[in-house]
Each structure stands twice: as structure tokens, then as C-alpha cells.
Model the fold of this input.
Amino acid sequence: MTKEKIAVLAYSGGLDTSCCLKLLEEEYGYNVVTLCVDVGQPEEEIREPEEKAKKYGVYRHYTIDAKEEFAKEYIFRGIKANAVYEGYPLSTSLARPLIALKLVQLARELNAEAIAHGCTGKGNDQFRFETIILAKAPDIRVIAPIRDLNLTRNEEIEYAKKHNIPVPSESKKYSIDENLWGRSIEGGPLEDPMYEPPEEVFAWTKNPKECVEEEYVEIEFEKGVPIKINGNKLNAVDIIKESNKIAGRNGVGRIDIIEDRILGLKSRENYECPGAVMLIKAHKALEQLVLTREELKFKELVDSTYADLIYRGLWHEPLREDLDGFIDKTQERVCGKVILKLYGGSIRVVGRESPYALYSKDLVSFEDKDMDQREIVGMVKFHGLQAALYESVKNKNKK
Ligand code: ARG
Done:
């Protein structure tokens, strides 16, 4: 069946994707269908693309609410894997495969010939979108107009002016990407790694120096995912929103790092991920209580590999699902409560309990007599056997 001359464009309403919209029509000769996938960005970032699509007279515009799917199938996996890449809880990276899948789904429904996105050739997102599209729809053409025409920012602005696309004012200094799991802030003056992020870049977190009152929060987990906050049962989306609110009002979750992009470029990144920081901290504390030393040690490797796969756009690599098998098995026992104390931007675990706790107060106590200390002597004697042998061999061979 021949395909329709349609390109489905991931559309945010911003400068890049608005230029793409016009380029797809003018340079590539497509009817453009715009898609905005709602993964928890602010209200106006859902409304704006819709209004702009109408204004630019696109063929059709779609909004897909994917918040619940994002929370349950992506963010919750991130929590179970304590997924953090170089200090970054992967908020933007986790949403990209889901957006790509929705693009493919819509392109299929419309029998479209192409899928388009506004990524440049320098960033990570082009990888994250295209690996998925290639795996799921190898027959669909992928177009990235900005990258494919090798446009610079200034060339884009010129093109925008010619086509009545509003150019963001100077005050829009930063490039911001926001979803349920966090806010990424980059570009503008922040490209200087010595430039301290000014207060104006933060929207979810209160200035830590103003957080003068401490707050306790209790989080309950079932099979590795949060289900209650302070005793209230909440659905997946709301528990993440609530976590962002609580940690954010305590100044928790500001992250400033130099990050290694997929291409190898180092970039300076700022994030606000209050909920992610709090939930992963609590989740790790519960794992420490219920998993064995061997499991914890091995899981650290699994977790960092998992985060790497997410970051590098390899959500569809079979290894990710293999690791999910291991992770889900360990999470069967990650049930219980964690109490955290938040204060002035800091966060501390101050309590934990679980029906699966491997911790035994009786055994570890100095008052216990059931565990006969004398039985340990033999074990202690042979504990450092190889190191002791090494010491004697070394002395023997000394000339
Ligand atoms: N560096 C992060 C990543 O690759 C975030 C990129 C966010 N984009 C933005 N326009 N701020 O996942």
C-alpha cells in the first residue's frame, strides 16, 4: 500500500520545531501532522503547540496524554533500577522512547510516509528517537530538518523571521525541557561551567536557604514502587507530582553537573528533580534493609548499566528487558516504609521498616547470647588466609 505524503512531526511549538514544520512543507513537500505527547509538561506547553499548529495551518494536530504510561512503565522502572547517569536521574531521557513510540503509532494510523523531529546533530535526543523508530518502523522515513540541512541557530532565526515564526526574546536565555520526572535547564550563560546558575532558572525548588523548617515524610513502597505518601494512597502520576512538591518546597533536587553526552561531548547541565532525588533515596534505603549483600553488590552494576542504556537511547536493547527480569525479581521484597527528613535542601533517611527486613536487632545486639561468639573463632582465623599467605611469600622472597 503506498503511503500518504504525510510527515508526523514531534511538535513543542518552540522555534526549532516550528521551523521544522515549515521546512517539511516547503523543502520536503509534505503535509504536516503535528503531535504533542503529554508526559507532564506544564499546561501551556500542551496548549501552545495546539494553538500554533492551528495558526500555521497544519494538516492535523494531535495531543496524546501519556502521563500514566510514562509514570508506570518508565519512571517506575527508573526507580526500581535507582537509575541515575552521572548524577542525573534521566528525566528527559526516559520520556524520549515513549514519545518516539507514540510518533510511530500515529504515523501507522495515518499511513504516513515520514516521521520528523527537531533535534540538532549535537545532542542526545536524535539517538533516542531514531533507535526506536528504526526498530519499530524501518520502512518509515526519518527526517530531522535542522540536522539534515545543517542549520545554525542564526540561520534558523533568519528562516523563522521570513516565515512569521515568532523568535524567542532575549529573555528566553535557557533551553528547558520539562516532564513529570524533572526539569532540564541548559544553554545560554550556563554554557560557561564557572557561571553559577542564578535563582531565576529554578521553578520547582525553593531556594534552600529559605527552607528553614524541617519536614518529615513517610514513603511506602510495594514491590519497589511508591504507593503511599504520609499514609495516603496515590496513583502513579499523583505520587510523583506529590513527591516533587514536597521535596521541591524543601529545596531538594538541584543538580549541576558536567555530563558526557552520547557523542562524547561534555556539556554543562542543570536539573531540578526533587521527586526523583527523594524517591530514589528512599528506595535505595529500603533495598539496603531487605536485599542481601550479594544482591546489593551485583545490583549496583545492573543499576548503572540500566541507567547507561536509558541515557544512550537503548531502551529497546534486549539487555534492558533482561535486566528488568533480574530487577523485578529483587523488587518482590522491596516492600515497606521509609522516613526521610528534609531540611534546607538536604535529605536524610531517618527510619525504615519492612516485613522482609534481613536486619535482626536481636542478633546484632551486644546483649544477645543465642549467637555463641565462640563459634566465630575458626571463621576469623581463616578470613584473611590469602592475604596472610601473600605476606609470608613476600617476606620469603625478599633478598
Ligand atoms: N542532557 C539531558 C539529556 O540528554 C537533557 C537535555 C534536555 N534538553 C533541554 N533542552 N534542556 O537527557
The chain is about 45% helix and 20% strand. Residues 365-398 form one domain. The first strand starts at residue 4 and ends at 10. Residues 92-93, 124, 175-177, 184, 186, 259, 269 surround arginine (CB under 6 Å).
